[in-house]
């Protein structure tokens, strides 16, 4: 399995992006939200799932591993292939989708094109226990950013305590919501004054 790809974003289409990985252009299908997070000419990193069919190898990409894991889980339900699983994640974020499946929220699930009332009922019946039993693999956004930035700072040679204090100070402002911005501000706080 190809668990993730990292490389320069060569192009972004309506339903896919092409990343150059080791000199090879790799097409990765993704939701509009994931594609919107990529910038042409910049480095992109996606958690991925490779779907192997008799006549094709198709790579699907996600901003976070929890979305990828849910994509794989959705395909264990009868009648759900990769395109429908991706459509579900395009309409509902992973947390909303897990909650809808666990709670049997038919109205929310039928907002996804291609899912009618009977399909939604079948999905909740087949996946309810699986999503309820599956621990969340991705922490909340603030916790994820806190962990990623602290780990990056420790990797740069700062002490864990100093890194955590700097990240907490940046997050306490509440203005930043993405990892790279928090990292920049935390590094600025840690530099000589």
Task: Describe what you observe in this structure.
It is a single chain. By secondary structure, this protein is α+β, with helices and mostly antiparallel strands. 50% of the residues lie in helices and 20% in strands. It has helices at residues 32-36, 65-74, 82-91, 94-103, 106-109, 117-133, 141-155, 160-173, 179-190; strands at 4-12, 16-21, 24-29, 43-53, 56-62. The protein has a 5-stranded mixed barrel with strand order 1-2-3-5-4. β2 (16-21) and β3 form a beta hairpin. α4 crosses α6, α7 runs antiparallel to α8 (160-173) and α7 crosses α9. Its main location: cytoplasm. Residues 145-193 are annotated as: Domain III. Residues 72-91, 107-126 form the Helix-hairpin-helix DNA-binding motif class domain. It is found in: Cytoplasm.
Quick recap of the structure?
Helices cover 50% and strands 20% of the residues.
Task: For the structure shown, list the relevant keywords.
193 residues; alpha+beta; OB fold (Dihydrolipoamide Acetyltransferase, E2P); DNA polymerase, domain 1; 3 domains; 5-stranded mixed barrel; 5 strands; 20% strand
């Amino acid at each position: 399995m190809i668990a993730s790809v990292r490389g320069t974003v060569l192009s972004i289409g309506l339903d896919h992006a092409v990343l150059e990985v080791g000199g090879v252009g790799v097409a990765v299908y993704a939701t509009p939200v994931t594609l919107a997070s990529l910038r042409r000419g910049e480095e992109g990193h996606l958690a991925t799932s490779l779907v192997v069919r008799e006549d094709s190898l198709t790579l699907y990409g996600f901003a976070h591993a929890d979305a990828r894991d849910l994509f794989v889980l959705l395909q264990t339900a009868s009648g759900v292939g990769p395109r429908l699983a991706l459509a579900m994640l395009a309409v509902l974020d992973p947390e909303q989708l897990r909650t809808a499946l666990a709670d049997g929220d038919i109205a929310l699930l039928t907002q996804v094109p291609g899912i009618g009332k009977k399909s939604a009922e079948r999905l909740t019946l087949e996946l309810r226990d699986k999503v309820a039993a599956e621990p969340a693999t991705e922490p909340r956004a603030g916790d994820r950013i806190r962990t990623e930035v602290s780990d990056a700072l420790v990797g740069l040679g700062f002490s864990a305590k100093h890194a955590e204090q700097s990240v907490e100070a940046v997050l306490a402002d509440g203005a930043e919501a993405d990892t790279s911005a928090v990292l920049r501000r935390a590094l600025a706080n840690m530099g000589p004054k």
